[in-house]
Every structure is written in structure tokens, then in C-alpha cells.
Amino acid sequence: MQKGVKKEMAKITEEVKEVVGKSKGFAVATATKEGEPNVVPIAFGKVLSEDEVLLMDVFMKKTEENIKANPKVAVSVWDLDALKGYQFKGSARIETSGSVFDDGVKMVKSMMPELSPKAAVIVKVDSIYVTSPGPDVGKKVE
Ligand SMILES: Cc1cc2nc3c(=O)[nH]c(=O)nc-3n(C[C@H](O)[C@H](O)[C@H](O)COP(=O)(O)O)c2cc1C
């Protein structure tokens, strides 16, 4: 009998969503194919669905190049007041047209009309880990 391949699934729960909402931004880590790391702060982002996060590309250079060469990303969010945080791991894809891109452009322009986003970076989240200090640190959110 052939064994089924278990696909990694993550669920962005209401509790996780709350921390995303309170986070001052997203720390977005990428790497080249060779493993050279890069991390940048991103302000324009939101939860798109139960397992997707949207980050708007306005100024990305190395981040964009890295994603094209190696889609694996890690994203950290945290609520400093509540000392709560989560880490997302997954794969990013870049979209430069369509409804997600259009909605993202609206979001950016509603806050800063002078900016012209280049692309929507959509992170398909495969796993979520607790970064909150305390007994659950490092645990996977199931
Ligand atoms: C507070 C803050 C918020 C930022 N928000 C965004 C953003 O929403 N989108 C974006 O493309 N760049 C944003 N940037 C710029 C990126 O952090 C970074 O400078 C840019 O991606 C170029 O770096 P890279 O070549 O390593 O990608 C922000 C920078 C700061 C300091």
C-alpha cells in the first residue's frame, strides 16, 4: 500500500490574527539559493486567509530577488505590549496583477497615496511557531 504524503498545513487562528493586528509590522526573512540571509521590516501587510499572508512590495530589492530564486520565507510578528509573538514559515509567490494585488494597492494608497506598490508577495504559510516568552515558546501552532 502506498503511504500518503502528509502535506504541511497551518491555520492562522483568531489569536494569531490578533497578534498580527497589533504587530508594528512584519520581519520578513528570505535567503539566496546559497543560503545568504536577508531580513527586512515590512509595514504594509495583512492576513489574507487561514493560511496566507499578504506583504506589499513597494521597495523590495534583495527580498524580491531572493523570493524569485528561493521562495522559502520566514516572517515574525509580535505584540510588544502583550509580549506575544508568532513565526510563520512558508513559501512566497509574487503577483503583479489580479484582485489580491489590486486590494493591496488600495490598502497602501489609503495610508500613503504617493506610493506605487510593484507587487503583492503572498506567503502560503506551512507552519506557525510560538515566539512568546514562556512555556509554549517554540511550540508549533496546530
Ligand atoms: C518601518 C519600515 C516599514 C517598511 N515597510 C515596507 C513595506 O511595506 N513594503 C516594502 O516594500 N518595503 C518596506 N520597507 C522597506 C524594506 O524594509 C526594505 O528596505 C526594502 O525591502 C529593501 O531591502 P531589500 O533590498 O533587502 O529587500 C519598510 C522599511 C521600514 C524601515
Provide a brief overview of the structure.
The protein has helices at residues 14-22, 62-69, 99-111, and strands spanning 26-31, 37-42, 45-49, 52-57, 72-79, 84-95, 119-130. It has 142 residues and is an alpha+beta fold. The mean pLDDT is 95.
Describe the structure.
The protein has three helices and seven strands, in the order H-E-E-E-E-H-E-E-H-E. The chain is α+β, with helices and mostly antiparallel strands. It has a single domain, classed as Pnp Oxidase, Chain A (Roll). Strands 2-1-5-6-7-4-3 form a seven-stranded antiparallel β-sheet. The structure holds flavin mononucleotide. The site of flavin mononucleotide has 15 residues, from strand 2, strand 4 and helix 2.
